């Protein structure tokens, strides 16, 4: 299967469009970095280091990429600057490959999980509810039966917002009043999902980070309760991060991975920012697969993250 075998032309165009600001930012900096140079030397590498760091790839990941390129320069002795793009593309793709278990097909679910339970975590304002709505839409388009659970009972707005998405996508939602016990909402959601033969359950949770201990306790209580109904639930803990916040997203990832076991990441709002490089750094630093990326307003603009296409869109 070729790189784009599973990837429609329309999706690739959306991805190119969604990453346009980041690409433009990286390219302008790159062309300045190699201006007047014919081969990749120490000065070009220093400039490249600066390009990557200021593109929100993060210091540690940048140094890793530079080291890999240095090794190639060492090996190939003479590398022309016109080859730098291709090499950057190859090295970043290789780095992403180490941290992402193989790319998944479109909104498929692992066999044998009945229902497949996704617990969604993340601070307020990162696009968590929107991501849940778009996930529900895409799973439904893939022929799956979806149930949503509004376990962010801390804010009335969160419950209402999720309800709006449930109506829009036309999937059932389980909710209680604001201030209810989140674990009890999760319990009811799984019971209802099991009774109705749902394929996938998506549970929203509260995004309060200022008190990590409370957050930890709440999330582990929700997990315990879900386990009673669906052994092994949740199958996935999805952390939603706002890509446009750059380094701030790193900080949130750090806090949440301490508070609970995160198994997958979704990076949203990449279309409105030049900070798309953050996807590379976060994937590398946290060793957690980036599973979804948000590259626009439309329902289809939540895409499965495919590292090959992503790097291709950034560096070609």
From TrEMBL:
A GO BP entry: SRP-dependent cotranslational protein targeting to membrane
Source organism phylogeny: Bacteria, Pseudomonadati, Bacteroidota, Bacteroidia, Marinilabiliales
HAMAP family the record matches: FtsY (MF_00920)
Name used for this protein in its record: Signal recognition particle receptor FtsY
Self-association state and partner proteins as the record states: Part of the signal recognition particle protein translocation system, which is composed of SRP and FtsY.
Enzyme Commission number(s) of this protein: 3.6.5.4
Domain spans labelled SRP54-type proteins GTP-binding: 289-302
A Gene Ontology molecular function term of the record: GTP binding
Superkingdom of the source species: Bacteria
Annotated gene: ftsY
Protein localization: Cell membrane; Cytoplasm
Binding residues annotated for GTP, in chain numbering: 122-129, 204-208, 268-271
GO CC terms in record: cytoplasm; plasma membrane
Function: Involved in targeting and insertion of nascent membrane proteins into the cytoplasmic membrane. Acts as a receptor for the complex formed by the signal recognition particle (SRP) and the ribosome-nascent chain (RNC).
PROSITE patterns: SRP54 (PS00300)
Originating species: Mangrovibacterium diazotrophicum
Keywords for this protein: Cell membrane, Cytoplasm, GTP-binding, Hydrolase, Membrane, Nucleotide-binding, Receptor
Root EC class: hydrolase
Catalytic activity, reaction form: GTP + H2O = GDP + phosphate + H(+)
Major place of residence: membrane
Family from the record: Belongs to the GTP-binding SRP family. FtsY subfamily.
């Amino acid at each position: 299967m070729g790189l784009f075998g599973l990837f429609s032309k329309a999706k690739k165009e959306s991805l190119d469009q969604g990453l346009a600001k980041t690409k433009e930012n990286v390219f302008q900096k790159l062309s300045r970095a190699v201006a007047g140079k014919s081969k990749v030397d120490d000065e070009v590498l220093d400039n490249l280091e600066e390009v990557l760091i200021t593109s929100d790839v993060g210091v540690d990941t940048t140094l890793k990429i530079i080291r890999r390129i240095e090794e190639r320069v060492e090996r190939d002795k003479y590398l022309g600057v016109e080859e730098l793009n291709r090499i950057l593309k190859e090295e970043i793709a290789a780095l992403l490959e180490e941290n992402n278990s193989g790319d998944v097909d479109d909104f498929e679910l692992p066999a044998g999980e009945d229902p497949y339970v996704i617990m969604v975590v993340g601070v307020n304002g990162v696009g968590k509810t929107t991501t849940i709505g778009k996930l529900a839409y895409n799973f439904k388009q893939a022929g799956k039966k979806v149930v949503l659970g509004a376990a962010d009972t801390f804010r009335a707005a969160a419950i209402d917002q999720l309800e709006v998405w449930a109506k829009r996508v036309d999937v059932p939602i389980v909710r209680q009043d604001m201030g209810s016990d989140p674990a009890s909402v999760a319990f009811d959601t799984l019971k209802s999902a099991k009774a109705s033969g749902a394929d996938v359950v998506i549970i929203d949770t509260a995004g309060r980070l200022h008190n990590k201990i409370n957050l930890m306790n709440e999330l582990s209580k929700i997990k315990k309760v879900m386990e009673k109904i669906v052994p092994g639930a949740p199958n996935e803990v999805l952390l939603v991060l706002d890509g446009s916040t750059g380094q701030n997203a790193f900080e949130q990832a750090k806090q949440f991975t301490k508070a609970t076991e995160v198994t997958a990441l979704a990076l949203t709002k990449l279309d409105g920012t030049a900070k798309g490089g953050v996807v590379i750094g976060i994937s590398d630093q946290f060793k957690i697969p980036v599973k979804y990326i948000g590259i626009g307003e439309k329902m289809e603009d939540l895409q499965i993250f495919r590292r090959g296409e992503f790097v291709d869109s950034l560096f070609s």
